[in-house]
Design goal:
eight-stranded antiparallel β-sheet; four-stranded antiparallel β-sheet; 3 helices; 24% helix; Signal peptidase I; Pept_S26A_signal_pept_1
């Protein structure tokens, strides 16, 4: 009888250890490697939509730097933002006649084609002219894909400290019918 109680006690202790280990592992993964994020607003439309749920790679920028085209999560003073990296330190950014120029060379932005078409139907450019802007050390320049409706480096967020970048968006996980990699 005493052996049965000891055996049940050992089994219960084993279960508790396993559950605690699993919770600690989930905490470590979520804190340092991957975390869920929910898009708020339409600034990245049509690439990302309001209430899309993403998985964010939080470790990528501890081994590399953000690159042009990356969709990143930025920690602001009161909230987080999801934006696309347009320029990195040392780059000179300019938009002229709805064309993005990085270091004097036009960058193709196929993810903007629907928004550019919509802007032209309104008789405006999707992205107003600006620049040239030279990106200093330790900073990046970001914009939303919905340029007519985005607070970004042009108009409120300013240049972003690389240390404020929490990670890179990897995949939309919800809604399930729209599950896809983000680019």
């Amino acid at each position: 009888m005493m052996e049965q109680k000891a055996k049940k006690g050992n089994e219960l202790f084993s279960w508790i250890k396993s559950i605690v280990f699993a919770l600690v592992l989930v905490y470590i993964i979520k804190t340092f490697f991957f975390a869920p994020y929910m898009v708020e607003g339409a600034s990245m439309s049509p690439t990302l939509h309001n209430h899309d749920k993403l998985y964010v790679n939080k470790i990528i920028y501890s081994v590399s730097e953000p690159k042009i085209g990356d969709i990143v999560i930025i920690k602001g003073t009161d909230k987080r933002y999801v934006k696309r990296v347009i320029g990195v330190e040392g780059d000179t950014i300019q938009v002229h006649s709805d064309k993005l120029l990085v270091n004097g060379k036009q960058v193709k932005e196929p993810y903007l084609s629907k928004n550019k078409k919509d802007a032209r139907s309104l008789g405006v450019y999707l992205t107003e002219d600006f620049g040239p802007i030279k990106i200093p050390k330790g900073k990046i320049f970001v914009m939303g894909d919905n340029r007519l409706n985005s607070m970004d480096s042009r108009n409120g967020l300013g240049l972003i400290n690389i240390s404020s970048v929490e990670g890179r968006s990897e995949v939309v996980i919800y809604p399930f019918k729209d599950m896809r990699q983000t680019k």
